[in-house]
């Protein structure tokens, strides 16, 4: 019997029992849809978390926290380390920063604020992607660059009322509203000696404002000074990094080291190789790629568990397929007897019934997949609205509860076909064992 004739035989038999076949296909479709939708939650949340992580961090950045010595202790990085890091293949830039060990008071007109003060190496910062929103980079020691949100923290010295709103931000009426580019701002540092406080004020010219951070919740209120200004502060306090008191003084080993060192790779593909090489060289590193590996591993385990749970629904549907195929064998016993009487090969008879069970599985998988896409769309559209209405919580932008990639469809359809074929194996084998004479007398 040709394959075309087998298909025609299957279709004829299905038409004879439309309702039973329809219910079996419906059960298979529901099982397949349940599997896809359930697993899609793992894919959707993974995609949302990965995307948010990639947005929150520079994906080519590798944080270098220190160098591990033979005794197991970590030391800060020096210029020798910077030169080595710059020589590593795939490295685009190595930024280094030094932080002042006190928070100076910055004042202009009748406004003032305290801010973290940093010495940055701007050539490497520019290579890493640092941008200005206004102005230019410093060209002389007394010129500075401000973080994008620095002006938001400048407040009136004479203000005595409640200065901050419910979000902890300085109220608009107390903020400095003029342009800072080209203005001179005074930096006041202090030192404590014999329980007496001394101060030193240095006028600095604002020449640039850094670009706003990528994420809304990130705040950059730093002040970026030159190495020359840092040296003046160190000379005034007599301590490394300009610490204000002996209790805050650093060990002398920190004198020629850097507080923050970051390596920027030429591309995301280079990050893993660079991180591995630096780890072998005893550098303590961290990169977003490492975080992605951990996140992906956790979600892989979660997705495997969800797929396993979803497979149970298909296994339940397989009971219906087994029942349908068993009844089909019983009802078609005379036809089977006739086929065997005219010399049909038992393999052909078995193939016909496996073809029918596969047909049910394919139709069910197609309907289930279409239903899963519809349910996924409704979940992503309606669930955030329900959560916000019921729990009064505002969800992050771009949060996706369900995502259906092509691999999930292939996995689900494959599981569905395997289960349906296995469900038809026993009835198909039984069909080949029917006795011809009994079948012709309808005694089966």
Number of domains: 2
The secondary-structure class comes to: alpha+beta
Order of helices and strands: HHEEEHEEEEHEEEEEEHEEHEHHHHH
Overall pLDDT score? 83
| Total E-strand runs | 16
Unreliable sequence segments:
none
What percentage of amino acids are in beta strands?
15-25%
Instruction: Characterize the biggest β-sheet.
Output: 14 strands, mixed
Question: Which properties best describe this structure?
Answer:
444 residues; alpha+beta; Metabolite permease
Task: Provide the fold topology.
Blueprint: H1 3-16, H2 18-56, E1 61-68, E2 74-75, E3 77-78, H3 79-87, E4 91-99, E5 105-108, E6 111-114, E7 117-120, H4 122-128, E8 132-135, E9 143-146, E10 155-156, E11 184-193, E12 196-210, E13 223-225, H5 227-237, E14 257-258, E15 260-265, H6 268-280, E16 283-287, H7 288-331, H8 333-341, H9 346-391, H10 406-432, H11 436-440
Parallel strand pairs: 7-13, 9-12
Antiparallel strand pairs: 1-2, 1-15, 1-16, 3-14, 4-7, 4-15, 5-6, 5-11, 6-10, 8-12, 9-13, 11-12
Helix pairs in contact: 1-9, 2-7, 2-9, 2-10, 7-10, 9-10
